[in-house]
Amino acid sequence: MQWIDKGGALLLAGALLALSGPLAATPASGAPGAPGARTVPRTASADPAEGPDPIDFAVVVDQSASLADKDLARETEAAALLVQGEISERSRAAVIGFGSSEKRGQSPVREVCPLIVADAAGRERLSDCVQRLGRRDTARTGPGTDFPAAVRQAVTRLTGTTAGAAKPGAPKVVFLLTDGRLDVADSPEYGTDRESRQANGEKRLTEELARARAAGVQIWPLGFGGELDRASLTAMAEGGYRGACSEIPGSAPRMRVVGTSAEIDKALQETFAAARCARIAHGTVGRPPADLTVTIPPIATDGSLTVAKHDPAVQVTYYDPAGRKVPVRGEFDGSSFEVSGQNGPVEALRVKNPLPGRWRVHIEAPPGHRDREVAVRAIWQGRLRSAVVLDPASPRAGEQVEVEVQMQTRRGVVVTDPRQLAGLSVAAELSGEGFAPVDFRLADDGKGPDAKAGDVRFTGTLTVPKSATGALELVTRMDAPGITSDRRPLHAVVAEGAPLVTAALTVDGATVHPGATVRGTLDVTNNDSAPHTLRLALADQTPGAELAVAPAAVTAPPNRSTRIPFTVTVGPDTPYGPLGGRVTVVDTTDGDRALRGAFLDVRVVAPPTWWERWWKAVAGGAAAALLLGTFVGIRLVFRRRRRDLTGVTLELRQDGRTLDSLTVRRGQSPGGIFAFAVDEPYGTPATLRRVPGAGSSAHVLRRTGAGELLLRPRGGAQVPVRPGEPAGLGDHELVVRGGRPAPAAGRGTPWTRRPRRTGGADRRTGTDAGPLTGSGPDGSPDASTYDVNF
User: Fold this and answer.
1) Per-residue model confidence as pLDDT tens digits over 74-133
2) From the centroid of its chain, how far is CA 643?
3) Which residues are bridge partners to 736 per DSSP?
4) What would the pLDDT profile of 271-321 be if each residue is shown by its tens digit?
5) Residue whose C-alpha is closest to residue 581's, from 537, 541, 536
């Protein structure tokens, strides 16, 4: 393959590259910025019940004399982080400082913020009043540490019957910050001497914790520094109410200790998230001006971005994962926003239905206010809906029932990634007439009734009690860090006797474009003597999905089994992604008795762009054109190479004697033409000399594109020349040797041996060349008769 030069190699490589794949990368369908991508507006829920469950909590802060001013400032900011970062607008918060009471006019507690609803206006009030913690009032509060009084004040506020008291059923939580231990030695209300006061203080603390436990108030202590009484903190956590927001380990009250006050903001937010079954995402840290980031996962439905800016002069701007600046209040692209604390050291942006991904928080500050690091975090919770399929849909008493649950977000988006539900446990409760409620577990482990592990469909079985007589209600509950369920009930009715009509329902799994249809099959057995009318319907749909099932009503003929095909049409404006919902079938002839249900297993993707449809044809055409161009280019290259006379030697002969020779050098035969002259000086043998140009005064040797040699003597006609054979040149003869072998007249394969004609008419000259014979000793062709054809 040495005959391929660099130009030909490059052309050939380009042709092979063109055949290896499309000429350009194609963005994924539906991806941001990709052809055909679109943004589907999302709807924010306006129903308060759709939001996270509220809690009532009190932040109780140690203001005793053992705290340095910087410690007190950090406690204040940590308290502000909690009240500003609370994710439910129905929650209520109180902030209480405490020390001791040692003389007339002093109180051991200082309530800086009464119990305030944490809505938009309430969070602004909390932002202002919590700052009072940072200013000690030694005239009204003593320097000691009165834990019993602090716990009593918090429990009273959270359980009182006055205005602003706790709502029935709302969890009640106390977060207590301290750097020390119980110190009431100088508080007269505990006794007449220091020793008895301390003992009475410990006894009183035990009583107050028992009161908190009876009232359902949790205590979460957080200590910092080196003078802590860990046993006392543990007793407070274990002495209060031991209930928890879920069965997940870590959601029950426990004490926590950090080394210094510089760590309490992070630790207190983590404690707060554990207490209210939320999750916390730690973002980046930086000094203004800077861009900080924090990531909110797809499963989050409610959250708050907290910015510990320390200095009210720091200004904050929020950008969603799509790079768009979001409003500080109001609705935007299906999310609702509400900022608070802009004039305080802690600012927070509460978001309902946040766009998942990396959020950017831009911070600016004027000169002189840029020396402190700002930290951003996100507290979030995912409130999931459970779509439930009961099989059989109307079970009989004593019959085993299979329950399958699929998880959806508030907007009906199906959760398909099991990693988002790590640690999730699912349980259900069946209640109804004639029996006590029955609890059972569901699993996504591929065992027993569960069809496939990791498909985020949780399955379980139970047996309906034999005493069940009428209505049934099934409620599922989910427990995982940061995940709660709406506990919507599924209603059914106990069937009496063997049902006359039974059904099986399947829906094809498919990936479709908006406007497409999905096929399904309904198999019905009607053992009745009369026909039954069945109705197909959709439930738990993804909002905006615009699904339609057809036919909506079918007839089950009597005394036979029938297979009825149906379709589910996906509307043209259906959002991309997995579709939530299920298809149900009920027997309208039997009082709308539910027969069967089946989940949709459908994913909607963007239609292919014109490039995605035609890139193969375009790429194939381009590759063919490139190959054709390459082929033509290679032929031109080889044609040029065949015409090259480099290395050809011209011998000037007379009377069988060589007078002179001249070899053609590289670049001396442009276009395959070499011009030369014969000099005949007086008294010396003639010589050969190369001359520039190919005028009429020069002899010219030329090689054609086919590789044939032609000689045009000066002023004469052009005649063919064969290597090694003399050709007339005036009074001399010219013999051409070397260089590229000349091809035979006509076409053939490269390096084909042809015997030289010695007889017959030569088709190039018209002369009789004689019979075909070889020129070798045995009649075979010699080396000069090799032809080269391409």
Assistant:
1) 999 999 999 999 999 999 999 999 999 999 989 999 999 999 999 999 999 999 999 998
2) 61
3) 650
4) 999 999 899 999 999 999 999 999 998 889 999 999 999 999 999 999 999
5) 541
Q: Find the angle CA(523)-CA(529)-CA(531) to the nearest 5 degrees.
A: 50
Q: Where are the beta strands (DSSP E) in 666-770?
A: 673-679, 687-690, 699-703, 709-712, 719-721, 727-729, 732-738, 752-753
Cα separation of 235 and 238, whole Å? 5
> pTM of the full predicted structure?
0.64
Share of the chain above pLDDT 70, in %: 85
> Residue 352: exposed, middle, or buried by beta-carbon count in 10 A (0-12, 13-18, 19+)?
buried
Express as a percent the part of the chain with pLDDT over 90.
45
Rounded CA-CA distance 608/514 in Å is 11
Alpha-carbon distance of 380 to 483, in angstroms, equals 9
Say which residues have a Cβ less than 8 Å from residue 636's Cβ, sequence separation at least 6: none
CA distances to 134, 238, 266 from 176, in Å? 16, 14, 15
Question: Could you give the strand order of the β-sheet that contains 553-556, starting from the edge strand earlier in sequence?
Answer: 553-556, 532-539, 582-587, 593-599
Best mean pLDDT range from 217-221, 226-230, 576-580: 217-221
Are 707 and 742 in contact by the 8 Å Cβ rule? The answer is yes
Q: What does the chain come to in residues?
A: 790
**274-288, 322-336, 491-505, 511-525: least confident range:** 491-505
pLDDT of residue 669: 85
Q: Could you tell me which residues come within 8 angstroms of residue 16 by beta carbon, excluding any fewer than 6 positions away?
A: none
Rounded Cα distance, 688 and 686, in Å: 7
Query: How many CB atoms sit inside 10 A of residue 653's CB?
Result: 17
Rounded to whole angstroms, the Cα distance separating 84 from 74 reads: 15
Interstrand relation of 315-319 and 357-364 (parallel, antiparallel or unpaired): antiparallel
- The beta strand positions in 147-216, using DSSP E, are 172-178
Residue 398 corresponds to which tokens in the numbers above?
């004593």
How far apart CA 110 and CA 72 sit, in angstroms, is: 14
Cα–Cα distance for residue pair 183/100, rounded to 1 Å? 8
Q: What's the sign of the alpha-carbon dihedral 762, 765, 769, 774?
A: negative
Query: What are the two backbone dihedrals, phi and then psi, of residue 689, each rounded to the nearest 5 degrees?
Result: -145, 130
419 burial (CB, 10 Å; 0-12 / 13-18 / 19+) is exposed
Distances (CA, A) of 36 to 321, 324, 511, 614: 20, 20, 16, 15
